[in-house]
Each structure stands twice: as structure tokens, then as C-alpha cells.
Fold this protein.
Amino acid sequence: MAITKEEKQNVFTEFGKGSQDTGSSQVQVALLTKDILVLTEHCKQHPKDFSTRRGLLRMVSNRRKLLEYLQRTDANMHKDVIAKLGLRK
């Protein structure tokens, strides 16, 4: 159910400044998006799992805050991350 190490490394190299860049905002947004997609599928299969739903909403809120920070600090990077992840239509 969780993201594998190989998938995380791919996210680090794709969104970060290098393979060791694990803390930048764009990497955190990408990892949260991957987790959100997994948990969304879980919540569709298990509609009465309220603790997972609470964790999912917390992740969505955290991702929103990180995206707002990215927009304030680096608008071009914000647009790139949204385009790569396909978040907004």
C-alpha cells in the first residue's frame, strides 16, 4: 500500500535538484500526491474506514499548504509541479 523505495527515488530525481534532495517543497508535494492517490483508492474500497479518511484529509491539507508556499516563493516552480502532477484542470 505504501510507496516503494524505487518509486521514491524516481520522485526525488524527477522533482528534486538531485537524487538526495528529499526535503524541498516540490518533492514533498509529489510524495504527498502519490500517497493521496493510494489512500483515495483505499477509501473507495473501504468507505467506513474513517481513520484513513482523516489521514487522507490531513495529507491534502498539508499538500495545499506546501503548494501555497511554492506559489508565494517561486511561481514558475509552482506551475511546473502542478503541470507534472496534473493536479489542476
User: Anything to note?
Assistant: The longest helix spans residues 50-73. The chain has a mean pLDDT of 92. The chain has one domain: 5-85. The CA atoms of residues 37 and 56 lie 9 Å apart.
